[in-house]
């Protein structure tokens, strides 16, 4: 009787000469990678990237180049890609881009960290404490309805037009989505998870660490992602309205005041690429954290099974 793992090649696929064994895939020599051929990791990265997302940017760039090359628009409002590339090289070579972008990112990072810390604390208090929800909840709901840019006059009077005022403004931009999503994520934890934790006699700290935090983590990450994006958008708004200092927003202002559309378009491209990089960074961190959490799901499933068995035994004892 043939073995389960034995392999019999069909006769029509292989024509062997007398005295020569049939070919076998396991005996075939490994084909060496050619020079310049991507390795397994690079191939996996290329397969993961969705190249269809480049269709629209490339089409817009081709249309822009075609319109400027054929001079279909005879106006100073439309410059050629070559002019923008020349301006980009001047900004990079002179160090103006590095100076402006580093100043904007430093403000964005400071405001995001402060706003995220405050949002996590406020959202956790609203989600875990009924007293805080009743005392602070209505005020926070009213605070969310106020437009973010409505605070600019008050912030400029209290903190001036320097970096302090901008960081305060960015902190508000990051605090609101983080606090709201943290509170919503805690409230969305299924009740049966809490009941299982009580059946296992978890303490308050164990309940938060092992039950509430893992269940609310996806929603909290959504708030962190929105806080990062909102703080970057608020960075440009703060640099527009609180003009003092340097930054990529001030580069856009200088281009518009000097009627240099090449500088304006260069600033817009830098803003878009920076936002895309921040988006990719946030998504990458989220995937890594959720993947590490996935390793704990088996332990959580085992705990839930033990809790269900404990509840079944306790119910039988109560019935008897």
Keywords:
MetI-like fold; mainly alpha; globular; 320 residues
Question: Summarize this, please?
Answer:
The protein is mainly α. The protein has a single domain (88-319), classed as MetI-like (MetI-like fold, Orthogonal Bundle), CATH 1.10.3720. The protein has twelve helices and no strands.
Strand content: under 5%
What radius of gyration results from the CA coordinates?
30 Å
Approximate shape: globular
Summed over residues and divided by their number, the pLDDT gives a mean of 77
* Biggest beta-sheet profile: none
And the CATH topology? Answer: MetI-like fold
Domains (count) = 1
Structural class: mainly alpha
User: Poorly predicted ranges (pLDDT <50, ≥5 residues)?
Assistant: 1-17, 22-31
- Multimeric status of the protein: single chain
State the helix count. Answer: 12
The count of strands amounts to 0
End-to-end C-alpha gap = 57 Å
Helix content: over 70%
CATH architecture type: Orthogonal Bundle
Order of helices and strands: HHHHHHHHHHHH
Under the CATH scheme, which class? Mainly Alpha
| Superfamily (CATH H level) name | MetI-like
